[in-house]
Amino acid sequence: MTLFFWTKLDLVYIFPKIASFVIVFFRIYPSITKLSYLNTSLKVNANSVGALYELLKAKNNLLIKDNVNNEFNLIEKISIRSLGFKYLEKSNYLFDNINLDIERGDIIGITGQNGSGKTTLCNILLSLILPTKGKIIINDKFNVFENISNYRHMISFVPQHVFLFNDNIINNITFNQKLNEQNYNKIKIILAKINLNINYDTLVGENGSKLSGGQKQKIAIARCMYRESQIIIMDEHTSSLDINSEKEVMDDLVKLFDKKIMIIVSHKKEVLKFCNKIYNLKDGILSLSNNK
Among 247, 277, 291, 285, which residue's Cα sits nearest to residue 108? Predict the structure, then answer.
C-alpha cells in the first residue's frame, strides 16, 4: 500500500523514500538472519538441553560414588543388541540391527563416511540420546538405559574440540570440585603420567588459548584418569593435531587405559592402527573391517 501511494507522487519524492526503505532493510537484515539462526539452533539442541536437565536432576547420584551400584565398578563387557536409530518415526533408520560385544581391554575403532551415523552412535553409547530400538547391556546383567546415572559415572568422553574455561589446570580437570590433599596428590601423579609439564596453577586462557592442541587433549585424558573411568569414548579426538602430537596422545591413551574399554570414532588410519578391532559403518550396517 505504501509503494502504491508513493507511485502517485512525483518521482523526485519516490526515489529518496525507496532508497530509505532499502537502507533500513539492509540494516535490519543481519538481525533477522541471526534470529533465524538462533531459532534453528534451539530446535537442533533441544535434545541436548533435555539431557543436561536430566543430568542436573540426577546430580547427587552422578557425583557421589558411594551411590553407584558396586557391580558397575568393574565393567568386563559391553553387549550391544539389535541397536537402531532414526530421527523421525516415519523416516528411515540411520543404522539398524547393530550387534557388538566389547570386552575389557579392547580398543574398538569405528569408521565410516561423513553422515553415516558415527557421531550419533557415539552419542548413544554415551547415553546422551536414546536409541529407537535395542539395548546396551553391561556384564550381561544391566541395561544401560535403565541405569543411566550409574553408567554415566563410569564413562568419559574425549571430543575433537576439548572444552576449557579460563581457569587453572586443576579446575579444568576437576570442574572446580573441592579437593583434599589426597586429590591434589592424585592430580600431580596424573600430570606426571601424561607428561603435561605445566604448573597445575597455570591459567589456560579463554577456551585454552594459551595451550597447544596436544596439551588440550592431554587435559581431556587427565579428566578421564581423575574420574577413574572404565569406558573412554573418543570422537575424532586427534583431528586438530599434527602427526607428532597425534602419536603422543595415542601412545598415552594406549598406555594409560590398557585395562579399560576404549571406543575410537575416527577416519584416520594412523589412529585406527592402535585398535585391535575396526568396524565400518556403511548404509546403516556396522561390519567388521579387514583394513587393520
Answer: 277
Alpha carbons within 13 angstroms on the beta-carbon side of residue 30 total 2
User: Residue written as cell 600430570?
Assistant: 191
- The class level of CATH for 69-288 reads alpha beta
Residues 104-135 have pLDDT tens digits of 999 999 998 888 888 899 999 998 888 999 99
For residue 208, the model assigns a pLDDT of 85
Per-residue pLDDT at 61: 45
Q: Closest Cα partner for 158 from 239, 77, 85, 276?
A: 239
* CA–CA separation, 226 and 220 (whole Å): 10
Q: Residue 12: its pLDDT value, please? A: 58
Pairing assessment for the beta strands 77-85 and 95-103 based on DSSP bridges: antiparallel
Pick from 75, 120, 82, 74: which is nearest to 100 by CA?
82
Give the separation between CA 223 and CA 105, rounded to whole angstroms: 19
Q: What is the pLDDT, as a whole number, of residue 214? A: 83
- Taking 50 as the pLDDT cut, the residues of the chain under it are 1-6, 60-69
User: Rounded to an integer, what distance in angstroms lies between the CA atom of residue 81 and that of residue 87?
Assistant: 19
